[in-house]
């Protein structure tokens, strides 16, 4: 039997959870990948996504406060477009996180292995250990998760700010030419990759009921987080490109580790290990907390297997936590066995995530149409997400398959419930 629900997230923890969700593995993996896609013009992509964060985060937070449900974005979409669309978005998010946490783990472990010259096996062992740590924290409850996010986000923010400040004097204009060797297409392709770095604004929608004072703290923590994250990401991209440490997009480049080593004067290996552990655990912690609550809400609403509608005595949807641990462990196993690279695997959750954002932002347009501010923030967010989508078309087979599975499940569930009702009526 689960304990009574006791909200535990404070304002400061809310900021930390936001930053833990958004300041994730993107700062490790994306500087090299985006420069390879767009050249120095990748800074434009980073700036565009940073600006998009303002209307996007505001829109999500506004509607999350209206409904205050563990279903988060799924509930938002359901209220706009009906039960089936809400279920689809929930399923997209579930599959996204079922693969995405493995991406975070492999990314971080790859950098640690590169720094200390460890082998292929060590990468996947460390990735698995990241998942284990995140699972243990999630099972301990939201209070433990909030405290961990506060610690991790504070340390990573301090390290990144120091790195940016001490790197500024080494920026050279020559590193920004030629500025856009791949043209507009390169900037668009970089935007798709950078979307991975800015995923996270939606995750807090599932945690709003966990705030002690949501009406006071959710929007405040949203605005502070948007400003901090946008500034850090854009300035970090600027100094990474400007100092010529963006690498070539390969794991061995570890551009952030090189940049921090030069700026802070410590060994690149130590820097890599510390920053990787912090950002990976922070991201995994937030996403496991939010996605497990989404799974619980979907099961509660009858659009996901009832098995997930269970909580531990710590008020944790423990079955969902175990589910994500197992699915991501299986993803690691597949990647290990078939040598699937991170820059290929990352496009699976990114494609699903972009689709989730498109549907959710258009749902926000409908729900906030009579609100002058909400109308324009949601419309701007929706149009930008829609503009990025064509650059991810190569992986659209993934949401097609997920859509088919969701629709089949809903039809099977509906037929089963109808049969049960008929049988009861016959007995009566």
Primary descriptors:
mainly alpha, Amino acid/polyamine transporter I
Q: What would a concise description of this structure say?
A:
The protein is mainly α and 428 residues long. The protein has 16 helices and no strands.
Overview of the molecule:
Its main location: membrane. GO terms for molecular function: transmembrane transporter activity. It is found in: Cell membrane. α3 packs parallel to α8 (183-198). With 428 residues, this protein is mainly α. The protein has 16 helices and no strands. The protein has helices at 11-22, 26-38, 42-67, 73-81, 83-115, 120-140, 142-167, 183-198, 214-242, 255-264, 268-300, 318-338, 342-345, 347-367, 372-388, 397-427. The protein starts with 10 loop residues before the first helix and ends with a helix. It has one domain (11-427): Amino acid/polyamine transporter I (Up-down Bundle), CATH 1.20.1740.
Note the topology.
Blueprint: H1 11-22, H2 26-38, H3 42-67, H4 73-81, H5 83-115, H6 120-140, H7 142-167, H8 183-198, H9 214-242, H10 255-264, H11 268-300, H12 318-338, H13 342-345, H14 347-367, H15 372-388, H16 397-427
Helix pairs in contact: 1-7, 1-9, 1-11, 2-8, 3-8, 3-9, 3-14, 3-15, 4-5, 4-14, 5-6, 5-11, 5-12, 5-14, 5-16, 6-11, 6-12, 7-9, 7-10, 7-11, 8-14, 10-11, 11-12, 14-15
């Amino acid at each position: 039997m689960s304990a009574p629900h006791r909200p535990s997230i404070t304002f400061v923890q809310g900021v930390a959870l936001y930053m833990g969700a958004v300041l994730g593995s993107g700062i490790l993996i994306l500087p090299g990948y985006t420069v390879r896609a767009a050249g120095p013009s990748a800074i434009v992509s980073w700036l565009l996504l940073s600006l998009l964060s303002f209307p996007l985060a505001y829109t999500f937070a506004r509607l999350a406060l209206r409904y205050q449900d563990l279903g988060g974005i799924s509930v938002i979409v359901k209220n706009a477009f009906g039960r089936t669309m809400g279920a689809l978005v929930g399923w997209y998010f579930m599959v996204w996180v079922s693969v995405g946490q493995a991406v975070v783990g492999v990314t971080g472990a790859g950098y640690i292995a590169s720094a200390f010259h460890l082998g292929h096996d060590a990468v996947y062992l460390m990735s698995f250990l990241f998942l284990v740590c995140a699972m243990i924290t999630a099972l301990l409850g939201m209070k433990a998760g909030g405290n961990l996010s506060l610690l991790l986000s504070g340390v990573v923010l301090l390290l990144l700010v120091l790195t940016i400040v001490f790197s500024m004097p080494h920026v050279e204009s020559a590193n920004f030419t030629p500025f856009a060797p791949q043209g507009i297409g390169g900037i668009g392709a970089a935007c798709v990759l950078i979307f991975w770095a800015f995923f996270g604004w939606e995750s807090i929608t599932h945690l709003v009921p966990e705030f002690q004072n949501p009406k006071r703290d959710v929007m405040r923590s949203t605005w502070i987080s948007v400003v901090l994250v946008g500034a850090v990401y854009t300035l970090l991209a600027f100094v990474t490109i400007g100092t010529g440490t963006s690498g070539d997009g390969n794991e061995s480049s570890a551009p952030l580790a090189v940049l921090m080593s030069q700026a802070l004067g410590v060994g690149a290996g130590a820097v890599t290990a510390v920053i990787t552990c912090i950002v990976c655990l922070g991201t995994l912690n937030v996403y496991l907390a939010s996605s497990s609550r989404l799974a619980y809400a979907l099961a509660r609403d009858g659009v996901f297997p009832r098995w997930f509608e269970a909580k531990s005595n710590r008020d944790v949807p423990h079955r969902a936590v175990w589910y994500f641990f197992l699915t991501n462990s299986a993803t690691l196993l597949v990647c290990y066995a078939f040598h699937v690279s991170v820059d290929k695997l990352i496009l699976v959750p990114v494609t699903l995530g972009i689709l989730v954002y498109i549907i959710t932002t258009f749902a926000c347009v409908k729900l906030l149409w009579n609100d002058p501010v909400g109308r324009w923030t949601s419309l701007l967010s929706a149009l930008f997400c829609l503009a990025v989508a064509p650059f991810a078309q190569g992986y659209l087979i993934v949401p097609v398959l997920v859509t088919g599975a969701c629709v089949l499940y809903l039809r099977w569930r509906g037929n089963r419930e109808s049969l049960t009702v008929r049988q009861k009526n016959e007995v009566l």
